[in-house]
Structures are given as C-alpha cells and as structure tokens.
Design a protein that fits this description.
CATH topology of the largest domain in chain A: MetI-like fold
Number of helices of chain B: 14
CATH architecture of the largest domain in chain A: Orthogonal Bundle
Number of domains of chain B: 2
CATH superfamily of the largest domain in chain B: MetI-like
CATH class of the largest domain in chain B: Mainly Alpha
Strand content of chain B: under 5%
Number of strands of chain B: 0
Strand content of chain A: under 5%
Distance between the termini of chain B: 16 Å
Structural class of chain B: mainly alpha
Number of helices of chain A: 14
Largest interface: A-B, 93 and 92 residues
Largest sheet of chain A: none
CATH architecture of the largest domain in chain B: Orthogonal Bundle
Oligomer: heterodimer
Helix content of chain A: over 70%
Distance between the termini of chain A: 43 Å
Chain lengths: ~290, ~300
C-alpha cells in the first residue's frame, strides 16, 4: 500500500468516526422525538389536574400519583376489557398462524391441480382493501347467520388462512428452506404432513411469530369492526372501552391518560417478548416481498 | 424434478396423494377466499344496486345510487378530497421519515437494536389509544403543541378542532406510526452489497452519488412495496375519525371509509353505502394501478437473479 493511499485510509477512518457520532446524535434526537408523546401521556397520567394546567408545564410530575391509576381502574374496567380483547386475540392468533402455515406449505411445496389459479386468487385478495367487504360480511354474519353482539365475526375469519398476506409470508419463507431437507425425510418414509410438522414448522418459527404479531396488531388496531359487531358494554374491548371512556370523561385528562397508558401496556409487553423473533423474521421476510 | 423419472403410474399415485394433502391444507384458504373475499365482493356490487335499508325488502334500482352519489350527495366530494389529502401527506411524510431513519440506523452506531425497537414502538400501540393520547397533546389550551407555539410566540391553534389543521395534524400521527416501514427499509438496506459501495468509492463517488446511484436502485423494490402498502393503508383511514373527530370539524375529516361507515351503520342505508364502497374501491384500485404502471420505470431489478 502506498503512503498516500494509507494516509487517505486513515483520514477516512477519522471522518467515518465523526460521521458516526453525528449519526448517533441525530438518531438519539429522533428517538427522543418519537418517545416524547408517550412520555407526555405518561407524565400526565401521574399528575393532578391542577398540575396539568400549570404554565409552563413541567416535564416531570412533582409527585408521582400512581393513585390516579387506582381511580381510573374504578371507572375504566381495564381488566375486563383486556380479558375480552384476549378472548378475541388469542384464538385468532393461534388459528390464523396455524392455517396460514398449512396454506403456505401447500403453495410452497405441494403440487396439485389448479395451483396457479388458486394462488392468483389468493394474491388478488391481498390487494383487495378490507373495507370493501365490510358491509356484505356484516350482513352475512348478522342477517345470514343471525350472530349479533358476538366476537365470532371477529375471530372466525382467522380460521380461514389468516389473510392472504400472511399466507404469502409463510410461503416465501418456506421456499427459502432447502428442499433437500424434505427430500431426505421423504426417503425416510415421512408423509407430507409429517414433513410439515417435523421439518418445516420448526424451521419457520420466526415467520410464524411474525404472522402472529401481525394478526395481533391488526386486531389491536381495528376499531371499526369491533364497533360494528359489539354492542353491549360488557363485551367491550380495550379499544372500544377507551373510546367510550374518553367520551364520558371529556375533561379529566389525567384519568383519561392513565386509561390510555393502561391500554398501551399489553402491546408493548407483547412486542418486547416477541421482539427478537420479530426483527429476525421481518428481516428475512421483508426482503422477499 | 430429475429424481422423478419413475414409471408414470407410480408418479401419478404419488402426485394424487400429494394433491390430496394440498387440498386438505387449503380448506381454510378456500373458505376464506370464497366466503370472506370474492362472494362479499360480488355482494357489494349486488347490494349497491338496491335501496336496501335493512328493514324493508330490498328493491332493485339499477344505477340509481351511483347517480345519486355523483349528483346530490353532500359529502362525497369533500370526503374524497380529505382522504386523498390525508393519504398524500401521510405517505410522503412517512416514506421520507422512515427511509431517513433507516439510513441512519444502517450506519455503524451502538445499540442499533435498541433504537430500532424505539422507532417501532408506536406501531404496536392500539390505534384507538394513540388518538386519545394525541388528542391531549393537540389540546386547544393546555396541550403540548400549543405550549410550544406559545413559547415561540405564535398564536394558539385548535389542531383537531380547526378544519384547516385537522388533516395535517392527523397525518403527523400516522407518520409517527411508521415504525414498520423503518424495519422493512432497514432490512432492505442491509441487503445492499457492500462491494458496490466500495467499488464506487474507489472511483471517487461521494456519499450523495453513492446513495443516488447504488442505494436507491438497490432498494427500489422495497420502496415500491412500502409505498404500496402505506398508500393502501392510508387511503382506508378511518380510526381517527371514529375515535376522535367524528368526521369533523365540518366535513374536513370525513374520510371515505368513515363516510361509508356512517351511511351503513349510523343511517342504515345499506344499498347506498355499498355504492359508496364500490366507488372507494375504484379509487383505491386506480391509485394501485397507477403505482404498478409506473413501477417498471423506476424499479431496478437485478436481471437474472430473480427466481
């Protein structure tokens, strides 16, 4: 290596270090911006109403009034709402992930008549916005099947493949697994389902967790369908309960924010638990889509 | 395939047992495609040609609903404009924001996993709670944003109670929620071969040039994917209107999906609402088609590498 080139490399290293420090500063700044609203909501939930309206507002509450949460829990039936939400989410995640895996496996590995056509229909439905089918489905559930004020219309669709997008993810993921593995198993006499359960499923766990997370987030965020299908307040989910609670307590911001923070918690916990798999999974799947 | 040079008889038997397993595996997808996707899609079209209110027997009225929407509906025009306005602001904002953050996170910085998690967090919070929480930040007198404005000497703004500001204010929330795009962009950036950058650097290309001619083309399929997904999602926006604004003030946040909800589930005009649905669907399909049409012009694909 010539002297000049060596010098350039050294200066490049130094300039790299400064740009990395600048990058870090910018990233920290933006991370603070992103977290700030959450902090602001949280700190409000710990304040008295007098403190909230103080000017200038303080960033950190004077006394951390966790008693606000006790008060909130008396009027905001968080645990009940959480249970109700879980009654919807748990079977949906399990069934959606499982059926998406079955379908993804069939599309990725098995040969059968009509595969092209069914796959095309599947992909086509991916581009179909969910709101388009909302009214006919509502009519189908309530008029056709006579199901009113029930979680079934929210849960049962996930027993049907968990959505085309999730089937697509699983298929892509299975296709990236070397076929030699299942061929070896075939020679050992394993059937197709045996291969699915003993070879494919262990290998695609990260993708399955991503699918479960997507279903979780989808249901978690979906206020519209819950509003349509659930009528009685006993059956309210967190999203419905909170929307309703805010309507009742328009001006009591500290209690409203306490209820908001409570509603944030399960999602954050679920994410922190699944994060490792999630990032791993999306890094692998995001590329192929 | 070359392992299958066995007698034809045997091969077809294997094939049929394979197909049987496949069909069993696909039962859920069949049910879903028929009953949850394609039949309802036909249903929308059928119901949209009736005057069904849910109480009386539906009567066939042809294209009457569509004509009514285009001639006398008081909301549809404002609704379409509000939705497209919201979608453009949100999509452009979140694409720039997420690509920018992803590029930063792609550099060698400590605790990258932690920061990635931080930027992703808003995405896992329940949407209804997010809007309630942000409504406090946007509050007219004591909200944080108005405090900021007063600090820099500006007048107070009624962010979500002012028809001029409500859509941009809601778009800011949806940009904030774009953590999923960051994760996908980051995954794409990590797949850009380092050798390209090194080679270009040898040739004396500066940072911007390398970004423009190497990074951008390499991740163009990911850009397309993110653009498509966020466009479809943002054009269907409904939660802020449901949980916060009820379409107001005035009709400034009466987004299309909210309009449909209002017609169908508040006013029980099911036939009319289905016609609205179909028009929304056409608009969404139009946007998607344009995106696909223009995509081959700017998506760079690595020729033979595609399977």
């Amino acid at each position: 290596m010539s002297e000049v080139a060596f010098g350039r490399l050294k200066s490049k290293k130094r300039s790299n270090r400064t740009t990395n420090i600048i990058t870090l500063v910018v990233v920290v700044f933006f991370a603070c911006l992103v977290l700030f609203p959450i902090w602001w909501i949280f700190r409000t939930s710990l304040m008295t109403n007098a403190e909230i309206y103080k000017f200038p507002p303080s960033l950190i509450p004077e006394n951390w009034l966790f008693s606000n949460y006790e008060k909130t829990l008396k009027v905001f039936k968080f645990w009940k709402y959480l249970c109700n939400t879980m009654v919807i989410i748990v079977p949906s995640c399990l069934a959606g992930t499982f059926t998406a895996t079955l379908c993804g496996y069939a599309f990725a590995r098995l040969r059968f008549r009509g595969k092209q056509l069914i796959w095309a229909l599947c992909i086509g439905s991916m581009l179909l916005p969910t709101m388009v089918t909302l009214i006919p489905l509502y009519i189908g559930w309530t008029r056709g099947l006579g199901i009113h004020d029930s979680y079934l219309p929210l849960i049962l669709p996930y027993f049907c493949g968990g959505g085309a997008f999730n089937i697509f993810l699983i298929r892509q993921f299975i296709m990236s697994i070397p076929r030699e593995l299942d061929q070896a198993a075939t020679i050992d006499g394993a059937g197709y389902l045996r291969i699915l359960f003993s070879i494919i499923i262990p290998a695609i766990k990260p993708a399955m967790i991503v699918v479960a997370l997507f279903i979780f987030i989808g249901l978690w965020n979906d206020l519209l369908q819950q509003m349509i299908y659930i009528n009685t307040s006993d059956k309210y989910t967190i999203a419905l309960g909170l929307t309703n609670f805010r309507g009742q307590l328009k001006s009591d911001w500290s209690l409203t924010m306490a209820a908001t923070c409570l509603s944030f918690a399960p999602g954050v916990i679920f994410y922190l638990v699944g994060q490792k798999y999630f990032v791993e999974g999306i890094t692998m799947t995001g590329i192929k889509s | 395939m070359e392992t299958f040079n066995k007698p034809r008889q045997r091969r077809s038997r294997i094939y049929s047992s394979e197909a049987r397993v496949a069909y069993i595996c696909l039962i859920p997808a069949f049910l879903g495609l028929i009953f949850l996707t394609y039949l309802p899609l036909l249903g929308v079209l059928g119901i949209s040609m009736t005057n069904w209110t849910g109480l009386t027997k539906p009567e066939f009225i042809g294209l009457h609903n569509y004509i009514k929407i285009f001639t006398t509906d008081p909301y549809i025009k404002e609704s379409i404009i509000a939705t497209i306005y919201f979608a453009i602001l949100s999509v452009v904002g979140s694409m720039i924001y997420s690509l920018f953050i992803a590029i930063l996170l792609n550099r060698k910085i400590p605790a990258r996993g932690f920061f990635r998690a931080v930027f992703y967090v808003p995405f896992v919070l329940p949407a209804a709670a997010i809007y309630v929480g942000w409504s406090w930040l946007y509050e007219a007198n004591f909200g944080f944003f108005n405090y900021l404005l007063s600090e820099i000497g500006l007048n107070k703004v009624l962010f979500i109670a002012d028809s001029r500001y409500v859509v941009p204010s809601l778009s800011l929330i949806s940009v904030w929620l774009a953590g999923n795009l960051i994760v996908i962009f980051l995954a794409g950036l990590q797949n850009v071969p380092v050798v390209y950058h090194e080679a270009a650097e040898m040739d004396g290309a500066n940072g911007w040039k390398r970004f423009r001619h190497i990074t951008l083309p390499s991740i163009s399929p990911i850009i397309f994917y993110n653009l498509l997904m966020s466009l479809i999602a943002n054009l269907q926006v409904v939660t802020p209107a449901l949980s916060l604004t009820n379409g107001g003030p005035g009709n400034s946040s009466r987004f299309m999906t909210y309009l449909m909800y209002d017609q169908a589930f508040v006013n029980y005009k099911l036939g009319y609402a289905c016609a609205t649905t179909f028009i929304i669907f056409a608009i969404l399909a139009g946007f998607t088609a344009v995106l696909f049409k223009t995509s081959n012009r700017w998506i760079f694909s690595e020729g033979g590498d595609d399977k």
